[in-house]
Every structure is written in structure tokens, then in C-alpha cells.
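FAQ: What does a ligand-bound record look like?

Like this one, built around 2-acetamido-2-deoxy-beta-D-glucopyranose:
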Amino acid sequence: MSLVWKVMALLVLSLALLTCGAEVQGNGQGKKQVPGSSTVHLSQDRDIWRPLIHTTVNLSEINSIKSSFELRTFDPEGVIFYGDTKNGVDWFVLSLKDGIPLMQISRGDILISVAGGPKLNDGKWHTLEVSNHGKFVILEVDGSEGVTVGMKSQQADEVISGELRLALGGILISKEKMIVQFEPRMDGCVRKGSWLNISTPWQSEVEDLWPCYQNIRPGSYFSGKGFAIFNTSVFLTEEDDGIKFELWSNFTQMDGTILSIKAPEQGLMFTLVANKNTKVVTFTRGKEKTYMRNTLRRLLIKFSEDSLLLVIEESELDSTSTTIMPMNHPGYLTTWRKSRLTVGGLLGEGEDSVGSQFLTGCLEKIQIQGRDLDLDLAVKHMSVSSHSCPA
Ligand SMILES: *[C@@H]1O[C@H](CO)[C@@H](O)[C@H](O)[C@H]1NC(C)=O
Ligand SMILES: *[C@@H]1O[C@H](CO)[C@@H](O)[C@H](O)[C@H]1NC(C)=O
Ligand SMILES: *[C@@H]1O[C@H](CO)[C@@H](O)[C@H](O)[C@H]1NC(C)=O
Ligand SMILES: *[C@@H]1O[C@H](CO)[C@@H](O)[C@H](O)[C@H]1NC(C)=O
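The answer part, i.e. the structure of the complex:
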């Protein structure tokens, strides 16, 4: 049956992953069986490359060449679905990159990557279907052809027997095997999966699968239980450009610490805190505080060597106000590059990542240095959802 993904991988590694899964769950308990059609929230907390659910079937039992499922996400990048045979020697990985489906396939002596089809990260449910027709693998999106890949090997076709493994939300091979590297974490949901028409139950790696929100909108959602931390060294900063933060949100819906920057061995460089009761958003730098009404829609904060600029855009009044405060901080860039930025909470004393004053609410968009901030790249609490808010 050349129906199936064949692929491959470090046998040892795959075994290690599976074994390790078993250990974590302890004594075989806690490993739940779930149907392959379960709704799976792909950002559920775990090791970043580890699948949330997986299954193994005997290849001789497979009578279909098609897998189909629905996907909904605002996240441009992350792993969706994985399949392999021969214990990971032949493999298939479907992910998103820049919002576009990316397939990577290893079969015998062939290793390829193909990206194509429409951008899928628009927050709508899309139906994806992957099928295997001899030398061709076809990905269909919403009933239209997305990508077709043809592969011809010098090696003789062999009879495939043994087992097929499928996984959602992670892979069972080493990430170094792939041609195109990507950030695996995906804030998205998969549902209504039909996998090669198999009815075998899947094993869940987690106790309970998180539900998906009924409706979502773009943004980063904070439920008041945790926050996200970045090393500021990851942001590009040019000598004389200053440092620019820009936030868009309905601030009336937010309560708690939105942003803070903490320099090593120093206090906070600044904090931005919203208070739903007082309806005030407070920007604090050292002992100086700037108060804003929480009806603002956009806030721009820009540090440079000799000034601090605040631009506040109000929705109701349709007005923009600009405040420039003089600053004398020649070493601010050096300090900034060694600092830590938190979103949705305040970093505690010391270098650990204990936080407090967590944010509740949806932060629609944050840009740093003019680029969208991707919370998938942060060290973040599992309660923080990087690319979607409940709507
Ligand atoms: C797969 O099924 C075939 C035929 O039913 C059987 O002979 C073989 O042992 C099975 N293999 C595995 C790994 O279960
Ligand atoms: C799926 O499997 C069922 C039996 O489990 C079978 O009746 C049905 O025809 C199969 N569908 C396809 C498309 O192969
Ligand atoms: C920041 O960098 C340090 C040292 O390189 C590292 O241990 C830590 O995990 C990083 N923190 C984040 C939030 O990326
Ligand atoms: C912000 O949220 C409040 C409360 O839900 C709502 O009344 C208001 O219309 C929203 N503002 C904007 C600009 O969407």
C-alpha cells in the first residue's frame, strides 16, 4: 500500500519521546483515549514540539487515502499534523508559516518541502484535506486544490507494512530533520478530524483537552493568571532610533499590568497599568506618573536619549494628543538591551520569573520597533493565549 505517509526519523528519538510520555503520565494512568475527531486546542501547555494526541494503526487496516479536518487560527506559524511510517523513517509534517500551509515530506531518499495555498490565519474555520495518490500528495483547502506534490524515487517501491503513527500539535521526529525550520507553537484549534478513515482511538498526552472558544477575535488574551516575558535583547534596536512601543486595544476592558520593563539590578524602567474601576491607565517611569483615560484606543510610547514621547489616541473624541517629556538617559539603550519586558504582569524582585498584578483582558495588538510582537516567542504562562481572544 503506497497509500500512506512513509517516512522516517530517528528511531531512538521517537522511542524516547513516546517513552518519556508514558513516564510523565505515570503507570499508564492519566493517558486518556479520545476520538480522532476531538476538538484540539493546539496551544495547550506542554513541551513545544510534543503532540497533544497521537495514535498508531496497523497499515494493513487502512482503507482510505484521505485525512480531513478543520482548522481555525489567527497564528501565522506553528505545527498542525504529523504522520510517519517505519517508526519515523518516512514522515510527513503539515504546518503553517506566514499563514500559508507548509508540507514537509521525507520518503525513502527524498526530502522535500512545499508551501502554497491561501493564507489560513484569518480566524475562520477552514477545511483541509490531505490525500495520497501514489506518487502525489495533495492538499486541498476548503474544497479547492491547494498544493500538489509529486515525488519519484530511484528506490524500488517497497511493500509497506508495519505501523502508521499520526500526531496532532507536534512531531515524533527530531526537528533538525526538517528542511524548513519553524516555531512550533500554534494558537489554533483543530476539530472534526477524519484520519484515513480509521476508528482507532487516539492517546491524549494531557489529562483533559482544553476546549476552544466558540468565537475568537485577533489579539492576545490574558485571563489574570499569568504573563509573558521577553529578553529585550531579541528586539533590534539601532543606536539613534530610540525604542518604540505601540499598543491598540479597548483599554476599558483591561485591568492589571499591561507592560513593564525591568533592567537588571535596577528598578522598573517603566510600567503601564490599566484600572477598570478608576477607568485610568497609568504610565509610570521612576517617580513620574502619567494618567490617561481608559477610553484610549492606541498608545505609542517612544524612548530616545533625550526624550520620552507619548501619543494617545482617543476613540470617542477622535483625537490624538502628544506629550513629550525631556529625559536625560544616555545609557538607556545599553540598559534596555539587558532588560526584561513583560506583557500582562509585573516581574518580581530577583531574576526568577515570578509575577504579579496580572492582566485581565484582550490586548488587540502590540508592536515593538514597528513589528508585531509574537507572544509565541516569549516564556509565557499557559493561560496566555498568543493570537486570539474570546469574542
Ligand atoms: C498487522 O496486521 C497484520 C494482518 O492482520 C498482522 O499479521 C500483523 O502482525 C499486524 N502488525 C502489527 C504490528 O500489529
Ligand atoms: C470507512 O470505514 C468504514 C468502516 O469502518 C467503511 O464502511 C467506509 O466505507 C469507509 N469509508 C471510506 C471512504 O473508505
Ligand atoms: C533570557 O536569556 C537568559 C539567558 O540567555 C535565558 O536563560 C532565559 O531563558 C531567557 N528568557 C526569556 C524570557 O527568553
Ligand atoms: C469597548 O468596550 C466597551 C464595553 O464592552 C464597549 O461598550 C465599547 O463600545 C468598546 N469600544 C470600542 C471602541 O470598541
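Follow-up question: can I read anything off the structure? Yes, for example: The longest strand covers residues 89-97.
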